[in-house]
Amino acid sequence: MGRVNFFAVDLGATSGRTILGSIVDGRLEQRELTRFPNTIIQVCGHFYWDIFALYHEIIRGLKLVANEGIEIKSIGIDTWGVDVVFIGKDGGVLRNPYCYRDPHTDHAMDDYFKLVSKERVYEKTGIQFMQFNTLFQLSTMRKNDDSALASADKILFVPDALMYMLTGESVCEYTILSTSQMLDPRTKKIDKELIDVIGLNESQFGRYVNPSDLVGYLTDEVQEQTGVGRVAVVAVAGHDTGAAVASVPAENEHFAYLSCGTWSLLGIETKDAIINKKSFEYNFTNEGGIEGTTRFLKNICGMWLLERCRKEWKPDEAPTDINKLNKAAMDAEPFRSFINPDDSRFANPKSMIEAIQGYCRDTGQPIPEDFRQIARCIFESLAMRYREVLGYLKELSPFRIEKLHVIGGGTYNEYLMQMTANSTGLPVVTGPVEGTAIGNIMLQAKAAGLVGDIFEMRKIIANSIELRHYEPKDNNAWNEGYRAYCKLVMKN
To answer: At what angle do helices 322-329 and 414-424 cross, to 10 degrees?
Structure first.
């Protein structure tokens, strides 16, 4: 078979892309078609995503494909997790969806636990408790008499909503559903008790689909707008981390993965969910993977910390070029100040710089002043947090972890990658950088019958990308730094 082309839509919490992926002679090729911002909209006291702007960007990318005369086999969409779109009985989108960073879910978990206990929720779902999980969003909206929820005929996660806008088909994809804290990982379906107490029913979430299942075909309306014809839309791993983990070029199961971007997601791939007292205590999550696997992981605040600081720094205060900024940070004194990246004050502060400085002030540490000290504090704190979480993983994993695979945009920061190897004491292998898009494309290739299973997918990926390797260094210094970090974090 010659070249087979696929159209991937990869939407992150800060930006989105459309990508043309092709399988040629057993190798993967990809080309970015468009890149665009995904901007949080603040209006009328809430934070929203612009679902119509995202739909427009998909249409724009498809038009480029048609204008170039490229025939595509299918379309796949992946996005961030938890957020939902409401569809009315007339088929219309009722409102732009709330962003998970909206503060309306402050104290939402405590409110919900009055209906169903925290322990029972975890036993049923095995999902890490975060106030913005879909269950708590929907519970809060019900409590607040949200008009869109009250009128909703369908409740669709963001990738499912975009597929609905393209095909008219209402589906609920397994991996994105697994981020919601409503899925029972044993049955692979929504738990009835958890949604009954907030007045919802399973039928509102569309028919269940799994990665590589056919959702439908582009509507006549979309075909006319784009000129691409009657193209299939395939459910990939709708959750971007699920798609990213599918791209990990691992040789065997003895690895942990770190998806390093706006969020850092650190975990392992297992056959079954891990739900016990320890996983509850450590607040780990069991999310859906491909081919029935479970992604046992923990969400960690990631490069969001640096992204927000960069928006505050003026050109005369810090380099606008990220590579120059990262390099300059290495001139700062090591192990001077640490933060807990997952402290609630870093969720969505008005000033990230002030939040970091305030944390260090409140914990009796030297306050980072310039961009070098702040960036180095962020990098070292992330590396230390990775070591902390990896220690929990080693305790809970059914197998020995011998290597850490890192994927995502954070792999561009070679200094952070070396710090991660130094801190964890594990060999670190980085790549692919664009893991989410690659996983998206390869799951479409599987749907097309070009690959048979995950091992064949990963073999093609490994043969198609450049990997970088980092070995642990400076063990004594990093061990001493980690002791200081632990003393600080456990105290606070």
So the answer is: 40
Between CA 339 and CA 361 the distance in angstroms is 11
Q: Which amino acid is at 285?
A: T
Distance between CA atoms of residues 164 and 158, nearest Å: 10
Which fold, 249-431+452-492?
Answer: Nucleotidyltransferase; domain 5 (3.30.420)
Residues whose CB is less than 8 angstroms from the CB of residue 150 and which lie 6 or more positions away in sequence, other chains included: none
The helix/strand/coil state of 469 is: strand
Neighbouring residues of 431: CB distance < 8 A, sequence distance ≥ 6:
249, 407, 411, 465, 466, 467, 468
Domain 4-241 has CATH 3.30.1060.10: no
32-74 confidence digits (pLDDT tens)? 999 999 999 999 999 999 999 999 999 999 999 999 999 999 9
What confidence score (pLDDT) does residue 1 get?
Answer: 57
Phi, psi of 373 (to 5 degrees): -65, -40
Q: Annotated catalytic sites, by residue?
A: 240
Could you check whether 4-241 and 249-431+452-492 share the same CATH topology?
A: yes
The residues facing 16 across adjacent strands are 11, 36
- Spell out the alpha helix ranges (H) of 21-114: 51-67, 108-112
Residue 77 φ/ψ region, left for φ over 0, alpha for ψ in the -120 to 50 degree band, beta for the rest: beta
Q: Which residues contact 160 (CB under 8 A, 6 or more apart)?
A: 170, 171, 172, 173, 176, 206, 238
Angle between helices 454-462 and 435-447 (to 10 degrees): 130
Domain coordinates of the chain in residue numbers?
4-241, 249-431+452-492
- Tens-digit pLDDT profile for residues 236-270: 999 999 999 999 998 888 999 999 988 899 999 99
What one-letter code names the amino acid at 387?
R
DSSP bridge partners of 244: none
